[in-house]
Amino acid sequence: MPPFYGDPVSDDLAADWARAARGTGRLVVQVLVPGGRPGPMPWHSRSRRARRLLVAAVAAYGLVVVIAASGTMNDDGRANGGVAFLWCLPMVLALVLTLRRPLDGWRLLSLWLLLTPYVLQGPAFDVPVLEFWEWSLWAPVLVAVGWAVPRRTAVGVGLVSGLLLVVLRYGTAWPTSDDLQTSLLVVAAVLLIGMTLGARWDARRALAEEQLRTETALAARGALAERARIAREMHDVVAHELSAIAVRAETAPYRVPTLPPEARTELAEMAATARRALTELQQLLGVLRAEDQQADRAPQPGLTRIADLVTAAREDGVEVTADLAELDVPTPLGLTAFRIVQQALANAVQHAPGAPVDLAVRQEGDLLVVSVTNGPGARPGRTGAGVGLLGMRERAELHGGTLSAGPTADGGFAVRAELPVTADVAGRTA
């Protein structure tokens, strides 16, 4: 029973059809009217030479197709070969334009395909809606459009392309064969191929962005962990010095009996201040170690322990050449030098397995110089997020020093730290 006038079901259906018609109209207008700035194309390379080669290859392909088509049209009497070649040159331009602006390239090529039957004389026999040479130009453009533009826009391109085929089938003077359905299926299939490539590219780009965010988060987390470790190590160093100050201040009246009362009072206050600072330092360390119940409580290493690192690396099969000078440096500075060497050796083993390593620790003027250089690895190594380099750089800056790290000319990697020997670490951390 047909719905009566004013039936809510029929009204809703009409409203849905009206909305669909308006949406389709807006989509067609969006596809046909140029506008907007194109984003990065998935086939673009960072190499300028590669981009130029791609443009040259596409232009050469288009010229070959156009020359062959001009010869065919000259042979069957449709048009003079030279005239046909000149008329088809904008199609080559459309191919090249597609590399940078796919929609604009599709618009120009589609317009030229539509005008060709009206400009050139038709053959005396039936031809397909689009001839092979026309498909040879149009299909790559449709693939590029489906690959590069959003899916909704690609659907609009498919609708307009289907309308173009209908016009070419029924609205031109050229005698055409009845293969419209096949042509429509070809357009749909070609666009679907492009959209599949586009979906794959979008997925890879999203994965790369997610990996970048993950690496950034891991680097930030690693930096915080390294800073907490530095703080724990500085506690061990500074606590020893504060304890020594407190003990010397408390025992001074017994070691120097002739001290006046004012000096005894001053030393007692100094000892009390040192004890309070030590207590507060231990409380702060407790916060840092709240989630680190297995923290290392052994004495902190220094320059003398670097030889142990070299021995351990050699036992693991690493070819290490070491030049270690016997130096007397402040404890915090020795700890920093040890940690830099430790991390640099670990990086060499991880990123360049089997590579020889040259290690040098020496004093140049007022600088303690730590240099670790490895050659190219014998086999591919694992990649990292750069947390180790960040930690080494922060340790060097803690002493007012600098750290440089980068690849060498022979494919290896070099780390060099320059640390002022007279740096006041306790003052800097305060």
UniProtKB/TrEMBL annotation:
Catalytic reaction annotation: ATP + protein L-histidine = ADP + protein N-phospho-L-histidine
Domain Signal transduction histidine kinase subgroup 3 dimerisation and phosphoacceptor: 226-291
Residue intervals passing through the bilayer: 53-73, 79-98, 154-172, 184-203
GO cellular component: membrane
Keywords carried by this UniProt record: ATP-binding, Kinase, Membrane, Nucleotide-binding, Phosphoprotein, Transferase, Transmembrane, Transmembrane helix, Two-component regulatory system
Gene3D superfamilies: 1.20.5.1930, Histidine kinase-like ATPase, C-terminal domain (3.30.565.10)
Histidine kinase/HSP90-like ATPase domain sequence ranges: 338-422
Source superkingdom: Bacteria
One Gene Ontology MF term: phosphorelay sensor kinase activity
Record-listed E.C. numbers: 2.7.13.3
Pfam families xrefs: HATPase_c (PF02518), HisKA_3 (PF07730)
The protein's name: histidine kinase
